[in-house]
Amino acid sequence: MKYLKNIKKYISLIIIAAVILSVPAVSADMQQALKPQITASAFVLMDGDTGQVLLEKNMNEKMYPASITKIMTVLLALERGQLSDVITMSHDAVFSITHWNSSNIALDENEMLTLEQALYSLSIASANDASNGIAEHISGSATAFAEQMTQRAKQAGALKTNFTNAHGLPDDEHYTTAHDMARIMSDAIKNPKFLEIFSTEIYNMPPTNIQPEARQFNRRYSLISGDFTYDGVIAEKTGWTGAAGFTFAAAARRGERTLVAVVMQAAEEISRRTDTAALFDYGFNEFVPVSFSAGEIAKQNHVIDIAEGLSVNTRLSAAEDFNALILKSLSKDDIKIKYIIAADENGRLQGRALFMLETGQTSRAGTDNMFAELGEIALEINNVSRETLENAPAEYVQEYAEQRPVIFKIFEITGIGVFILLFLFLLLIIRKHIIIHTRKKRKSNGRAVHFRSNYR
Q1: pTM summary value
Q2: Can you state the angle between helices 70-80 and 142-155, rounded to 10 degrees?
Q3: Domain assignment present for 80
Q4: How wide is the angle at C-alpha 204 spanned by C-alphas 203 and 207, nearest 5°?
Q5: The domain containing residue 299 runs over which residues?
Q6: Where are the beta strands (DSSP E) in 34-164?
Q7: In a domain, 435, yes or no
Q8: For residues 322 and 377, is the Cβ–Cβ distance under 8 A?
Q9: In principle, which of 68, 172, 395, 421 could form an S-S bond with 249, CB 3.0–4.6 Å?
Q10: Helices (H), 156-224
Q11: Residue 406: CB partners within 8 Å, gap ≥ 6?
């Protein structure tokens, strides 16, 4: 019958539309499948400029770093010493290294070398004896230098790190996390000399007062040189001890994007490099930048309820833009801004804008666990009187979120909401055709019947 043909036509159109609408959900699943399979016990992939975590596993668990400790050793030495400084190796600096398989460059007591030469030996040959010499030269003792390393790490945001030596050999109280090491590396690569030292493939150290022959250092187990390289690596450091397993920290740059990857407790030497390369591929290939201008972040006529009966009409402004990376399957619309106004210990209001991915989008964004947060920036609170600030209770905290209409969230998940609406629309069309066909049939029999619909 004719009306059945029309119904089939509409059903076909609905099916085609449903297939088209399901494409974003398939793409999201594909994006999830593109996540690299990392074998290390802990790792983190981080934006080197903003500190945004793109992917991680156990990144906050305390672990032994082994020789990636020397990233902090070199950074602190560069900041507190001069490259031309002359280091004289003490008895303790040479002979306190008792591990039979410990990396060293065979320095001897009273041997003299420059700080620059020692730094290259740390980066390329992972020289533990030179690490001790640097520590004593900069701070007077290995213990004092380790304490300064810990303090400098905290300045870089590494709050779960404690160093007890400059080389990274096993010590129960010498630990860090993958996230902390990524923060330290991000800080270190801002130093041009650090980049030079940690990217050099071969270094020839001239003869010393004791060693008549030059020493040549060749970078091994590297992403910069050798049989397994990665394009764009600008700094790297390897590490290994029996307790730490294989560790690796590296930074890579392509275009305007700088990424930092840290792998800890890898089971094999090659896997720490393949893991790191896979993380870099993910960061460079699967993410796109997104930006919010300061004007987009600002809020005009923002009412703050300080206390019962006390409210203030104010303005929130941002001093800078906000930049982040999100997966290609997402867009700027998937991010919401949460405005947080809080009073500090002195009762003065402070504001910040927290940028978050919509609930349920976390895995699609490449992040896990708590990392739905992309980052935050400070806000200035304008048009608030000094008296109001002083009267604000210290415990006051209020959050404001830019919420998108609920109806949007129905469509964002997998397209099911749209399909349901289209299915209901199809039922209405089918019912209409049945009614029309029935009327025509009955009129042809000379009996017109009036139908009443409950649909409005």
Answers
A1: 0.76
A2: 90
A3: yes
A4: 150
A5: 291-409
A6: 42-47, 53-57, 86-88, 112-114
A7: yes
A8: yes
A9: 68
A10: 178-188, 192-197
A11: none
Q: 377 to each of 50, 82, 297, 344, how far by Cα in Å?
A: 11, 36, 10, 17
| Nearest alpha-carbon partner for 245 in 8, 42, 15 | 42
CA distance 322 to 353: 10
Residue 262 amino acid letter: V
Helix (H, G, I), strand (E, B) or coil at 106: coil
CATH of the domain at 172: 3.40.710.10
Assess contact for 217 and 225: CB atoms under 8 A.
Answer: no
Q: Are strands 322-327 and 287-292 parallel, antiparallel or unpaired?
A: antiparallel
Q: Assess whether 353 and 224 both reside in one domain.
A: no
Residue whose pair of structure tokens reads 């303090």 in the numeric block: 151
Question: 8, 427 in Cβ contact below 8 A?
Answer: no
Q: Choose among 239, 159, 407, 257: nearest CA to 249.
A: 239
CA distance 240 to 375: 33
Nearest CA-CA partner of 339 in 323, 325, 355: 355
- 350 and 389 Cβ atoms separated by less than 8 Å: no
Q: Are residues 153 and 82 in the same domain?
A: yes
What is the chain's pLDDT, residue by residue, as a tens digit (456 residues)?
554 455 555 545 444 444 334 434 334 444 454 789 999 999 999 999 999 999 999 999 999 999 999 999 999 999 999 999 999 999 999 999 877 678 999 999 999 999 999 999 999 999 999 999 999 999 999 999 999 999 999 999 999 999 999 999 999 999 999 999 999 999 999 999 999 999 999 999 999 999 999 999 999 999 999 999 999 999 999 999 999 999 999 999 999 999 999 999 999 999 999 999 999 999 999 999 999 999 999 987 777 666 666 676 778 899 899 999 999 989 999 899 988 877 777 666 788 899 988 744 443 344 443 346 888 999 988 766 555 555 555 444 333 333 333 333 333 444 555 567 677 777 777 777 777 666 666 555 554 434 333 333
SS3 73: helix
DSSP 220: -
With H, G, I as helix, E, B as strand and everything else as coil, classify residue 139: helix
CA distances from 70 to 149, 158, 163, 270 (A): 10, 15, 11, 21
Q: What stretches of 186-232 adopt beta strand conformation (E)?
A: 202-205, 215-218
The token pair at 288 is 């796109």
Nearest to 271 by CA among 300, 292, 302, 245: 245
For 295, the enclosing helix (H) or strand (E) is helix 294-297
Residue 29 lies in a domain: no
357 vs 21, 81, 288, 332, 414, CA distance in Å?
A: 22, 44, 14, 9, 16
Number of domains in the chain: 3
